[in-house]
Amino acid sequence: LHSDIDSGDGNIKYILSGEGAGIIFVIDDKSGNIHATKTLDREERAQYTLTAQAVDRNTNRPLEPPSEFIVKVQDINDNPPEFLHENYHANVPERSNVGTSVIQVTASDADDPTYGNSAKLVYSILEGQPYFSVEAQTGIIRTALPNMDREAKEEYHVVIQAKDMGGHMGGLSGTTKVTITLTDVNDNPPKFPQSVYQMSVSEAAVPGEEVGRVKAKDPDIGENGLVAYSIIDGDGMDLFEITTDYETQEGVVKLKKTLDYETKKSYSLKVEAANVHIDPKFISNGPFKDTVTVKIAVEDADEPPVFLKPSYIFEVQENAASGTVVGKVHAKDPDAANSAIRYSIDRHTDLERYFVIDAEDGNIKTTKALDREEIAWHNISVFAVEIHKQHQEAKVPVAIKVVDVNDNAPRFAAAYEAFVCENARSNQQFITISADDKDDSANGPRFIFSLPPEIIHNPNFTLRDNRDNTASVLVRREGFSRQKQDLYLLPIVISDGGLPPLSSTNTLTIRVCGCDSGGSLLSCNAEAYILNAGLSTGALIAILACIVILLVIVVLFVTLKRQKKEPLIVFEEEDVRENIITYDDEGGGEEDTEAFDIATLQNPDGINGFIPRKDIKPEYQYMPRPGLRPAPNSVDVDDFINTRIQEADNDPTAPPYDSIQIYGYEGRGSVAGSLSSLESATTDSDLDYDYLQNWGPRFKKLADLYGSKDTFDDDS
């Protein structure tokens, strides 16, 4: 920087301010030269704005207005190109056409794209030729070879370079790695690794059992490698089947039906393996299927005997004699040894042992007479066992039908009881009867109904065969009377249609009943007829109703009488009764004050107040009978107690037997006087207590206290 007024005498001072002043940029205050103190990076900051001014060195007075200027950093090629990703991954179908786009990679350059060629990039391929190529300007990677096969090589590693300066010498460059994977297409058909498979299976194998496996190889993967197996030809198509195991991609040959070594010892199958999904673009590579021959050998096995029939049905007449041959079963050993067979009956199916079987020839016979009406069919099982190999056995069901014979006569279908009205008209039908027969239909209907020859001309009833296995009973005459005869027994002969026919005589009970004019039954017994002559039904009902009402009234009266209660008796002086308190405590006399607490004799309920009596007040006072009360001066305790007991027993107003009454006080004014010995010594009593001397040592104290006056006088 230089000012026009600078004469070079050093009086002018240059100063610098602004962005980076004093740090990045400094100025020589004498000459005005501006210097950079460090290396500048355009990518970090492209330009700086500074202000310069000339001032007087001595006074710092501005000599010129400040001048603003811009310092621009000129770019150089100091940044190489950089890709967005260090590694790229891409997929492309195998056998893609040349030029198929795979992926586009992009690089960037931090240098100034407007100045020179520092940021002009060019793409090139360093690794991955000749399989792939890259467009120089866009970075698009494309296939370069046709028919690339995934089965030959699946993954490719490509290195792409981006170089600035337009790719010229001296330019900077950057690289990235691209991993390209060929995806699978169905371009390979399945192939069997061998032309013939050998398998074997035992003739004892059960249907569904696996025989063997075949596998066609398909180098494709995923759904393109799926293979389905099928049997397209062979003499064992009906006996074998094949399914596909999609986990292992194998064809599983299974047994479809049972085999017989003696019938056929080997089979041949033609198995086809075909792709499930076929790509139409590669149909020309087909056909996408392959075939193989499977030979299966049948192995001999020790088989159990085989019956000639899967089941047997025989017939035998009922009531046939024991030992009658029912039928014959036959089994044979299918093996080449053709062992002898023994037969037996499964006794779980013949618990009653109706049949036996000849162990040698298989003839089944009866052991007792059979009754079709009891069991019409017998279902048994017969075993066949090889003589030398007891574990090899076979079982066959045998159904034996018991053929019916006419051995049951027909009977009434129900227990019939007929009713005929007294006013029945002649030839009036009053019941229809039918019959049943335990025999089979061939020996049962048609039934023929008739009256026995001896009563063919029965004067009361006649029979008409309806020819439909029923018969009607009709009245032959009019005017039946219950009083004369109320019950008739009519024998009826029933014959069946068997050969030879059987018949039975059944008795029909016929009751004579009273009926109204419409023919409705009213009564069927003679007693009711007699009662009706005296009293009508309504009168009888009225009488019974009256009796019931009277009974109800009596019951209610008795119940109310028992429940009636009077107010409880209060304690009045004139209604005081004697009490006898009994306890099993023996005291020591009047001097013994600790032997018994007199308070226990008191009524605990009456201590705190007035307690009414719990017994029922008598409705009338019982007057004591004369002669029963002892004399007031009597001292015979036994007589006194016995007298009270007799009064209580004969007193209708006394409480019930086995009751106890407790009084918490001693009455006043008792006619019998007090039984207490208290204060007896102070009274002028004429009683003689000498008898206390005879009561023993326990009453000695009382005898001393209440002895005769003479004794007291002598002592004094």
TrEMBL record:
Membrane disposition: Single-pass type I membrane protein
Pfam families recorded: CADH_Y-type_LIR (PF01049), Cadherin (PF00028)
InterPro entries assigned to the protein according to its UniProt record, in alphabetical order: Cadherin (IPR039808), Cadherin-like_dom (IPR002126), Cadherin-like_sf (IPR015919), Cadherin_CS (IPR020894), Cadherin_Y-type_LIR (IPR000233), Catenin-bd_sf (IPR027397)
Cadherin domain segment(s): 3-83, 84-192, 193-307, 308-412, 412-529
GO cellular component: adherens junction; catenin complex
One annotated GO biological process: cell-cell junction assembly
Subcellular location, record wording: Cell membrane
Record-annotated membrane-spanning stretches: 539-560
Ribonucleoprotein recorded as keyword: no
CDD domains in the record: Cadherin_repeat (cd11304)
Functional summary from the UniProt entry: Cadherins are calcium-dependent cell adhesion proteins.
The protein, known as: CAD11 protein
Species of provenance: Neodrepanis coruscans
